[in-house]
Design brief:
This protein is an alpha/beta fold. It is built from eight helices and nine strands. It has a four-stranded mixed sheet. A three-stranded mixed sheet has the order 7-8-9. Strands 1-2 form a two-stranded antiparallel sheet. The two termini are about 25 Å apart.
Length: about 200
């Protein structure tokens, strides 16, 4: 559609496809990062060359299970202090909270910062007190496709989402995570692969 109507704005694409620009934002961002589209301010999007169909099919079909990374988890009785140490040692911005191996919640750097600034005792307070509970969490299953996970991360303004396997009502076993780092690494890999292909061609 971009190739047919270029230059075309995000608003115009939304009208053509009968969706909002916000819905298209993650897709356009990925296509732009891959070099499939080129965005020019106040002008619109341009198609950036042929032969990219295989990469496009891949990003719209690959499952999160294929690019997931190991989740960092702690028990719900872990103290805020110990969780902060774990976050530092594992070099992550999100820790998932479990009980009997089932997902119960999540904490982020911001959550830990709020506790510290609030003057609470991080050495005795359990993470269950400050975590975002499962009922308010965003997650995906291993069958979900990559682009859907990207949409959730963009729409909910979060850095990381867990990949879960359902074993019953409110029994979600965490089997992985997908983060902005996973997404960036995967997109960069495709971009490098495609650019290498064109340079050799």
């Amino acid at each position: 559609m971009v190739k047919k109507h270029e230059p075309v704005t995000g608003e115009q694409l939304g009208e053509y496809l009968n969706v909002s620009r916000a819905t298209l934002r993650p897709d356009l961002a990925i296509l732009n990062m891959l070099g499939i589209l080129v965005a020019k301010p106040k002008v619109g999007y341009f198609y950036n060359g042929p032969g990219i169909d295989l990469a496009m099919k891949e990003i719209f079909s690959i499952s999160v299970d294929e690019i997931k990374s190991r989740p960092v988890v702690v028990d719900e009785e872990t103290t805020v202090y110990d969780a902060a140490v774990t976050m530092f040692l594992e070099d992550v911005g999100t820790i998932f909270i479990v009980k009997d191996q089932y997902l119960k919640g999540v904490i982020s750097r911001k959550d830990l910062l709020k506790v510290t600034l609030g003057g609470n005792s991080a050495t005795t307070m359990p993470v269950s007190v400050i975590m975002t509970r499962l009922s308010k969490m965003v997650y995906c299953s291993k069958e979900d496709i990559f682009i859907d996970a990207v949409r959730k991360i963009v729409d909910y303004h979060i850095d990381c989402i867990p990949i879960v396997m359902e074993e019953g009502p409110d029994k979600l076993k965490i089997i992985g995570r997908i983060s902005k780092t996973n997404i960036s690494t995967y997109i960069l890999g495709i971009s490098n692969r495609e650019r290498g292909y064109y340079e050799k061609g």
